[in-house]
Amino acid sequence: MEEEKQYKAYYDIQKELRARVIHSDVLPEKINYIAGTDVAYNDEDNTMIGAAVILDAETLEVIETAHHEMETTFPYVPGLFSFREIPALLEAFKKLKTQPDLIVCDAQGIAHPHGVGMATHLGLELDIPTIGCAKKRLLGDYDKAVLPSQRGASQTLLFEGKKICAALRTQDDIKPMFVSIGHKVSLETALIWVLKLCSQYRLPETTRQADQLVNRLRADSISKKTLEKE
DNA sequence: GCGACAG
DNA sequence: ATCTTGTCGC
Description:
Blueprint: H1 2-6, H2 8-18, E1 33-42, E2 47-56, E3 62-71, H3 81-94, E4 102-105, H4 118-126, E5 130-134, E6 154-159, E7 162-168, E8 177-183, H5 187-197, H6 205-229
Parallel strand pairs: 1-4, 4-5
Antiparallel strand pairs: 1-2, 2-3, 5-8, 6-7, 7-8
Helix pairs in contact: 3-4
The protein binds two DNA strands through strand 1 and helix 3.
């Protein structure tokens, strides 16, 4: 309907981005640093905080973080989600001293109606290998009953006949995560890294650290603003 | 037509 | 995403 026209420019951008996605492994021989990202919102003043955390790929310790707070301008439109969060994330990445070899996003990669989920979009913008690791399935079909309950079990999801992502059990007897190619990483490699990052919890350590960071920052930001008012 | 829809 | 504490169950 009218929404189609309203957002046409963004759909056109996605079409261009989609053509540039690299589905194979084009990453460093040795991965030293892995980044996690997340964004938190403050409805009160319509702002958001985007953050990037860098973990040592070996120890999974946080070695650097960066963030950026700005006004939220793009609405949440399913299918155009990346345009909402990416501005804050790009600014956060600019502030990092350490450039990551790989980024794990808390969102979809190519498992997206136009093949350009948040992880893929970010990977293309930064020209850094990315993996999409979402808590929920967006699209693609699979047989839940066939996915074993053991950590490490995975099953490919099909969309229009193509393997677009995989449900991955990151811990025994817990809901799977949905892993997809972002950019410059194969699905096989993506699964290996996500599993490695989920040694203790359902969510990758990258996502957990980024999530905790933005929530701390948001709490700080809100209390600071309320103090200024009074 | 109806429902679903990453975060 | 966000609003929110304790609590039922293994």
